[in-house]
Amino acid sequence: MSLFKFGDFETEVDFTDADFLTDLEYAQEKLSEDAAKVPKTGKTAELFRAQCQCYFNFFDYLFGEGTHEAMFQGRTSYKLCIEAGEKLSECENTQTEEFFEKYDRYNVQEHGNRQQRRYYNKQHGKKKKQHYKG
User: Fold this and answer.
1) Backbone dihedral region for residue 83 (phi beyond 0: left; psi -120 to 50: alpha; all else: beta)
2) Domain range holding 27?
3) Structural domain tally of the chain?
4) How far apart are the C-alpha atoms of 79 and 2, rounded to whole Å?
5) Which of 31, 66, 68, 72 could, after both became Cys, cross-link 58 (CB 3.0–4.6 A)?
6) According to the 3-state scheme, what is the secondary structure of 60-127?
7) Does a structural domain hold residue 48?
8) Confidence of residue 118 (pLDDT cuts 50, 70, 90)
9) Helix-helix angle 18-36:44-63, to 10 degrees
């Protein structure tokens, strides 16, 4: 688990939890749908406001109603929305790297048949076992 904190909001997130991942996927789908509805032309302030609303909805879907108010403290800043998305992504990347570093040693590494194993061992500097001849 990792601590995700932005503004006055903080929570533990676990990117290996199937329920959390389901919620994340749903929130990402809604974000894509909402972003597709944002007008392509108009006043800059209106476009930023519409983009921010997409992020507000995303974080509310993911963490619960009112989350965006704690995160952005009443501000409608597109820059802050992008930073919050990046922070969540960084949290996910860090947790994923830690997960694979920790659990890769438990994976069984198969290197094929005997010829392939010999080639693999030769490439990786592993010597074959020496038998004692007395």
Assistant:
1) alpha
2) 2-86
3) 1
4) 23
5) 31
6) HHHHCCCHHHHHHCCCCCHHHHHHHHHHHHHHHHHHHHHHHHHHHHHCCCCCCCHHHHHHHHHHCCCC
7) yes
8) confident
9) 160
Q: Look at residue 24 and tell me whether its pLDDT is greater than 90.
A: yes
- Phi and psi for 2 in degrees, rounded to 5? -130, 155
pLDDT tens digit sequence for 30-75: 999 999 999 999 999 999 999 999 999 999 999 999 999 999 999 9
pLDDT at 113 over 90: no
Residue 25, in any domain of the structure: yes
Instruction: Tell whether the model's pLDDT for residue 76 goes beyond 90.
Output: yes
Question: How far apart (Å, rounded) are the C-alpha atoms in residues 82 and 88?
Answer: 10
Output the six-digit token pair for 12. 């533990």
| 24 backbone dihedrals φ, ψ, rounded to 5° | -65, -45
